[in-house]
Design brief:
about 150 residues, alpha+beta, OB fold (Dihydrolipoamide Acetyltransferase, E2P), 2 domains, five-stranded antiparallel beta sheet, about 40% helix, about 30% strand, elongated
C-alpha cells in the first residue's frame, strides 16, 4: 500500500506545481514591463555516463523597478530555457522585462506560456498509477479461493 501513498503524494505535489505555474503564466500576460539588458547568455552541454548529451541554456538580465535593481534568469515562466530561445538574447541585447508588480523580483522576457507542463504530465501519471495500485489491491481481495473438488 506504500506504493499507493507515495505515488499519490508525488502526484498531488506535481499537479499543484503545474497549476501554480499555469496560474503564473496566465498572470504574466497582465504584468507591466520595464527596459532591461541581457548581461549573459550561456549555452552549455553535458554528457551523462551513457553518452547522452543534454544542452542547457541560461539567459541572465538586469532591470529596475521603482529605482531598485533586479536580476532575472527566466525567459518564460517554464523553469527551463530552450537553447533556441536563448540564442535570441545575446549578451548586451536590450530587452523588455515583464515583472510581477506584487513581487518585482519575479520576471520573464516572454509573457504567457503553458506553465510547467512536465510537472503536469508527471503528476497525472502518478495519480493514474495510484488508481491502478488501488484497483489491483481491491480486485485481488474480491477474488475468492476456488474450493477443492474431491
Amino acid at each position: 500500500m506504500s506504493k499507493f501513498w507515495i505515488s499519490l503524494a508525488i502526484g498531488i505535489f506535481c499537479i499543484l506545481a503545474w497549476l501554480g505555474g499555469r496560474q503564473e503564466a496566465a498572470a504574466s500576460n497582465g504584468w507591466p514591463s520595464v527596459p532591461g539588458v541581457v548581461t549573459a547568455m550561456e549555452i552549455s552541454e553535458s554528457r551523462s555516463n551513457d553518452g547522452t548529451r543534454t544542452t542547457h541554456a541560461k539567459v541572465t538580465y538586469t532591470y529596475s523597478v521603482n529605482g531598485k535593481s533586479y536580476q532575472g534568469d527566466r525567459v518564460k515562466v517554464e523553469s527551463m530555457t530552450d537553447p533556441s530561445e536563448a540564442e535570441r538574447y545575446p549578451k548586451g541585447t536590450p530587452v523588455k522585462v515583464f515583472y510581477d508588480p506584487a513581487h518585482p523580483e519575479a520576471a520573464v522576457l516572454e509573457q504567457g506560456g503553458a506553465g510547467l507542463l512536465f510537472w503536469g504530465i508527471v503528476g497525472f501519471s502518478c495519480l493514474i498509477y495510484s488508481a491502478w495500485v488501488l484497483f489491483q489491491r481491491f480486485s485481488s481481495r474480491r477474488k475468492s479461493p476456488v474450493a477443492a473438488v474431491p
